[in-house]
Description:
mainly alpha, two-stranded antiparallel ribbon, globular, 76% helix
Amino acid sequence: xxxxxxxxxxxxxxxxxxxxxxxxxxxxxxxxxxxxxxxxxxxxxxxxxxxxxxxxxxxxxxxxxxxxxxxxxxxxxxxxxxxxxxxxxxxxxxxxxxxxxxxxxxxxxxxxxxxxxxxxxxxxxxxxxxxxxxxxxxxxxxxxxxxxxxxxxxxxxxxxxxxxxxxxxxxxxxxxxxxxxxxxxxxxxxxxxxxxxxxxxxxxxxxxxxxxxxxxxxxxxxxxxxxxxxxxxxxxxxxxxxxxxxxxxxxxxxxxxxxxxxxxxxxxxxxxxxxxxxxxxxxxxxxxxxxxxxxxxxxxxxxxxxxxxxxxxxxxxxxxxxxxx
Length: 325
């Protein structure tokens, strides 16, 4: 049995259980299997390469955010991103702590500052997800038969763009009024979190750093969008870049709810977006959701595992190492 047949067998086994539970006997297995078999490996490899490029862009942005605290070389930040995201894919959201712990223990950076930069990253990414979602909705061409609700969402997409811009402006307000805001925090932990967030936002005080962080944030999501577009080309969907970006964003948001190592939210968001916005048959959407999940997550997990093994490291070693603070 070659690797492709084994891969399809595993995905079919997973799909058989889910499809039976959700769609029962109405599931068209011939369409499902043909969607799996006809994937274009070259485009998927290109997508994986773009995914790893996104970790490089993340590392550059992280380096800028960490610079006021400690100057760290780019190479360890790239490895920290790969290991950190592989931990998220395997452990779920509990893996979020790995990246700041990695930098704090391996590079002797203050843990609170490392955590603050990760929080700032997530805040920036949330705002950009909103902006890209609104822009994708405005630009995407929906099928004529799309539901009235979907068309209404497209017509109101400009509201999402306004909200994302307003949220970015609020960051400047929060940074300048942080002391007053912290005084009204109901709990000590919340006050501490707000202080750390403000410290992570110190790049807003420096014009050059602000421009670099925003530029790299935009570049990051452009690369991620292209990665997903390449992946969809590999699955024989000749979507526009805005359409592929829309599917990617819905899948990414839904992946916040996932079973460690298995996913669930990602696949559900992918199938929902494909079937609701673009009227793709459930069988084809579900088959390609499994491929997208494996192509998005598996290479990172493998690379992160290989790196840790090659360095003789384990998560237990990471927990035991001293923390600078």
